[in-house]
């Protein structure tokens, strides 16, 4: 294929050539960055919590009349007993929070009592000896809490449990290359011995500000008695989630009707918790996806439009070429190659622009650097799009009969 | 002449319907996307108190012993500082306020109790922030001092509980206290919820919660502290509070103070008053430093907190880039369309039409495409705003097209298409008549 005649033809259509190239460049720049944003949001969406999500649900039980801590604790123990006796329930545990809840208790962990800089931030989960079985956590070192070690505390006391379990991510942060079991860590109220390490448990917030300690958590062997209420995390037997969710709320009201369990968010299956936590990320990803598709469609339409015009303009030349012996394939190839050349120029400009936009977004929107993979995918996508869009007008051009050359000369 | 050009344009648009549809679509989609996002930006970045905002200030002193003169003061005040500055009454109006979550019990035995956000503020709140009343009115300063068990509710709550009737004099049960309704607000939806803004610098751009609705229940400040004692949340503490939820003597910041200073010449005096107060507190040993007091104006405080969510800004930039691509696309299509009619142009020129006349003719055609695109773009904008109203964000209910943005939709659509049409029209009017006539 001769490229030179194509180039010299393009030189006579500077404006059109430039417009197609510019459109491809802009589209590439936007689509690359949009795809990249989608990927970041989706990756965020699919971060694991480390718990047995399909079978878990969460109950938020609010007390009526601000019970004293001891009173609340007795009620919590009675509630848990009622929940664990239900046929569809495998296990249940009290907690102050759970992964993806959004807010809760985050605190500093130190290795020495008088350390100026915190060793790590951490989510604080209050739990009893059923916690790891209920959530389906994997204990990778040490042991679980024993029933007699589980106490209760209220907000007046400082956080100073004698022993705790921590997550593997926190253990690796505090004791890199060493075993954590048996070591002492300092919480805000005092020292605690690590008795067990669990494989994975996500923090309660997936927001940007909590990303520093996303998988670092300390599990405290205390029932936290708050005058407002508590959460119960319940694990249903496989396949019995819906039944267990209904039975659980009924069982709690039967145990003691003086409580509030909200209709809309009082009992939530974990899949609902997950979708609530990531609602905004998902919305943004969908929006970006729609924008990409519409942009690509508009670019393709533009290429079809301009190429059709060129074909119409050059009918006579095409006729002459055909009359001089060019095959239909030659004509088809001519327009395909022409588009490829313009597209190559466009994606070259577009790649530079995409990187520039990304760098600007890094400074203004806390984005990560664009990975080269996205640029390559975008370039291939746009080259294919260009070839696809030009196909219809090029086919029409190839069907121009040689006799066209003789008309109205 | 304009009528004739319009006629020609309509004719020409009808001739190649697919190309016309493509161009209209490009303009409509570009305008729809950018007007949707720009409307959101416009609604979220306006002045929540037009005409008043320049007289409203947010004084800050810093009681945190871990901070220094070089650090930003904490975003809220400790109880003591807030109370001292408020009681001095040195400004034209001053409001102390705090938010908490309270349990609202209804008389109805059938309805369960609900937890709802409550605002507790001193009496100036309503006059200072131009809060409109439907029934009754605000409480008095004496009610503040007497910790009167009174409450003002929003129109929303009044609709929900009393079907919109005049409920002044009725009683609500907040936790275990009975409070008497003295006022019902008209619908009031400041954007953002400016009086409650703080901590924006820690939010990493995720600030959509600043656009939440005002609290449904508004009590006098001290009444709120009594009624909901034990349920107050700190903004932050530098030590564990002795009684979490009861923060009056705690090492915590949790109260906001707003002042209104009508006379601009008095602003400097109030600034000095705040600085002097901090210096005096340092002298008696309550503060460790006093050099970092601040007093930002309302709009300055909104700016400092970066209220516009970064997702919204990102979407606006994307939409504008989108419009740019649509325009480039349209330039190409118009170029194709106009130059295809070179023969016709040559004929008109040969018959005596000036270049200006040819230019005008094609600009009228571009403008017509813009107008049709604008109508479609307006429909798409309405669809886009409907989509935003379905989103789980605090500002969802605000997303409606107002008159200026409605007009801007059409101005932008026609302006954009004229801009896109300019280059093709210039090329069209440069057509050399003789060449074209020869090839006819």
TrEMBL record, chain A:
Q: How does it sit in the membrane?
A: Multi-pass membrane protein
Annotated ranges, domain MacB-like periplasmic core: 52-251
Q: Which domain of life is it from?
A: Bacteria
Instruction: Return the Pfam families for the record.
Output: FtsX (PF02687), MacB_PCD (PF12704)
ABC3 transporter permease C-terminal domain sequence ranges: 290-402
* InterPro entries referenced in this protein's UniProt entry, alphabetically: ABC3_permease_C (IPR003838), MacB_PCD (IPR025857), Macrolide_Exporter_MacB (IPR050250)
Q: Where in or outside the cell?
A: Cell membrane
Can the keyword Thylakoid be found in this entry's annotation? no
From the record, give the transmembrane residue ranges: 15-38, 284-311, 340-360, 372-395
Task: For this UniProt record, give its keywords in alphabetical order, as a comma-separated list.
Answer: Cell membrane, Membrane, Transmembrane, Transmembrane helix
Q: Which family does it belong to?
A: Belongs to the ABC-4 integral membrane protein family.
Q: Which PANTHER family match?
A: ABC TRANSPORTER PERMEASE YTRF, MEMBRANE COMPONENT OF TRANSPORTER-RELATED
Please state what the protein is called. ABC transporter permease
UniProtKB/TrEMBL annotation, chain B:
Membrane-traversing stretches? 21-44, 316-339, 368-388, 403-426
Q: Which Pfam families is this protein grouped with?
A: FtsX (PF02687), MacB_PCD (PF12704)
Domain called ABC3 transporter permease C-terminal: residue spans: 318-431
> What membrane topology was assigned to this protein in its record?
Multi-pass membrane protein
Question: Which InterPro entries does the record associate with it?
Answer: ABC3_permease_C, MacB_PCD, Macrolide_Exporter_MacB
Q: Where in the cell is it found?
A: Cell membrane
Alphabetical keyword list: Cell membrane, Membrane, Transmembrane, Transmembrane helix
Q: Please list the residue ranges annotated as the MacB-like periplasmic core domain.
A: 20-200
Q: Which PANTHER family match?
A: ABC-TYPE MACROLIDE FAMILY EXPORT SYSTEM PERMEASE COMPONENT 2, MEMBRANE COMPONENT OF TRANSPORTER-RELATED
Q: Give the protein name, as stated in the record.
A: ABC transporter permease
């Amino acid at each position: 294929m001769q490229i030179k005649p194509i180039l010299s033809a393009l030189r006579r259509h500077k404006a059109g050539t430039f417009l197609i190239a510019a459109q491809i460049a802009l589209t590439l720049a936007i689509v690359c960055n949009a795809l990249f944003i989608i990927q970041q949001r989706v990756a965020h969406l699919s971060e694991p919590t480390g718990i047995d999500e399909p079978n878990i649900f969460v109950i938020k039980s609010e007390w009526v009349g601000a019970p004293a801590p001891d009173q609340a604790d007795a009620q919590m123990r009675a509630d848990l007993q009622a929940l664990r006796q239900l046929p569809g329930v495998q296990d249940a545990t009290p907690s102050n929070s759970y992964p993806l809840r959004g807010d809760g208790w985050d605190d500093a962990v130190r290795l020495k009592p008088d350390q100026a800089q915190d060793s790590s931030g951490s989510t604080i989960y209050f739990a009893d000896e059923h916690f790891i079985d209920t959530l389906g956590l994997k204990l990778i070192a040490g042991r679980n809490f024993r029933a007699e070690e589980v106490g209760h505390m209220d907000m007046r006391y400082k956080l100073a449990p004698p022993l705790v379990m921590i997550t593997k991510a926190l253990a690796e942060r505090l004791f890199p290359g060493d075993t954590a079991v048996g070591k002492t860590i300092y919480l805000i109220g005092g020292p605690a011995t690590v008795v067990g390490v669990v494989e994975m448990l996500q923090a309660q917030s997936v927001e940007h500000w909590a990303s520093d300690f996303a998988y670092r958590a300390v599990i405290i062997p205390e029932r936290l008695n708050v005058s407002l209420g508590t959460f119960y995390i319940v694990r249903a037997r496989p396949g019995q989630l819906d039944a267990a969710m209904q039975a659980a709320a009924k069982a709690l009201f039967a145990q003691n009707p003086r409580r509030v369990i909200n209709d809309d968010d009082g009992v939530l299956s974990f899949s609902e918790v997950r979708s609530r936590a990531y609602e905004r990320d998902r919305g943004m990803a969908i929006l970006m996806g729609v924008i990409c598709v519409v942009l690509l469609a508009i670019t393709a339409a533009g290429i079809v439009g301009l190429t059709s015009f060129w074909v119409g303009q050059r009918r006579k030349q095409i006729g002459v070429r055909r009359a001089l012996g060019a095959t239909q394939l030659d004509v088809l190839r001519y327009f395909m190659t022409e588009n490829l050349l313009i597209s190559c120029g466009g994606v070259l400009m577009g790649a530079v622009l995409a990187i520039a936009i990304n760098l600007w977004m890094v400074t203004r929107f806390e984005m990560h650097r664009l990975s080269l993979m996205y640029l390559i995918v975008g370039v291939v996508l746009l080259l294919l799009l260009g070839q696809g869009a030009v196909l219809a007008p090029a086919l029409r051009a190839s069907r121009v009969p040689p006799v066209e050359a003789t008309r109205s000369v | 002449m304009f009528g004739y050009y319009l006629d020609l344009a309509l004719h020409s648009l009808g001739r190649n319907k697919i190309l016309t549809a493509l161009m209209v679509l490009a303009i409509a989609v570009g305008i729809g996307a950018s007007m949707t996002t720009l409307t959101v930006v416009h609604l979220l970045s306006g002045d929540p108190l037009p005409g008043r905002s320049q007289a409203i200030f947010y004084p800050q002193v810093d009681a945190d012993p871990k901070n220094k003169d070089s650090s930003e003061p904490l975003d809220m005040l400790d109880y003591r500082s807030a109370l001292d500055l408020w009681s001095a009454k040195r400004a034209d109006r001053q409001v102390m306020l705090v938010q908490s979550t309270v349990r609202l019990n209804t008389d109805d035995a059938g309805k369960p109790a609900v937890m709802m956000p409550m605002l507790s503020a001193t009496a100036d709140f309503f006059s200072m922030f131009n809060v409109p009343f439907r029934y009754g009115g605000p409480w008095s300063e004496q009610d503040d001092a007497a910790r009167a068990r009174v409450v003002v509710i929003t129109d929303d709550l009044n609709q929900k509980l009393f079907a919109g009737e005049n409920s002044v004099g009725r009683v609500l049960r907040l936790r275990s206290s009975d409070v008497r309704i003295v006022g019902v607000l008209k619908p009031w939806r400041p954007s953002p919820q400016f009086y409650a803004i703080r901590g924006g610098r820690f939010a990493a751009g995720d600030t959509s919660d600043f656009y939440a609705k005002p609290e449904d229940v508004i009590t006098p400040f001290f009444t709120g502290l009594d009624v909901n004692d034990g349920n107050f949340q700190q903004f932050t503490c530098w030590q564990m509070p002795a009684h979490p939820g009861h923060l009056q003597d705690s090492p915590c910041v949790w109260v906001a103070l707003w002042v209104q200073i009508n006379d601009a010449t008095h602003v400097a005096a109030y600034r000095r008053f705040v600085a002097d107060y901090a210096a005096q507190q340092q002298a008696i040993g309550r503060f460790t430093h006093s050099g970092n007091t601040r007093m930002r104006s309302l709009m300055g405080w909104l700016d400092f907190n970066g209220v516009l969510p970064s997702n919204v800004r990102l979407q606006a930039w994307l939409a504008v880039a989108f419009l740019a691509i649509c325009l480039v696309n349209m330039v190409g299509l118009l170029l194709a369309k106009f130059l295809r009619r070179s023969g016709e142009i040559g004929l008109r020129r040969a018959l005596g039409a000036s270049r200006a006349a040819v230019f005008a003719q094609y600009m009228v055609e571009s403008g017509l495409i813009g107008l049709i695109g604008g109508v479609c773009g307006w429909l798409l904008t309405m669809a886009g705003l409907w989509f935003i109203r379905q989103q789980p964000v605090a500002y969802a209910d605000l997303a409606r097209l107002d008159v200026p943005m409605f007009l801007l939709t059409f101005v932008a659509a026609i302006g954009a298409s004229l801009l896109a049409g300019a280059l093709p029209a210039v090329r069209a009017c440069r057509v050399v008549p003789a060449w074209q006539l020869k090839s006819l």
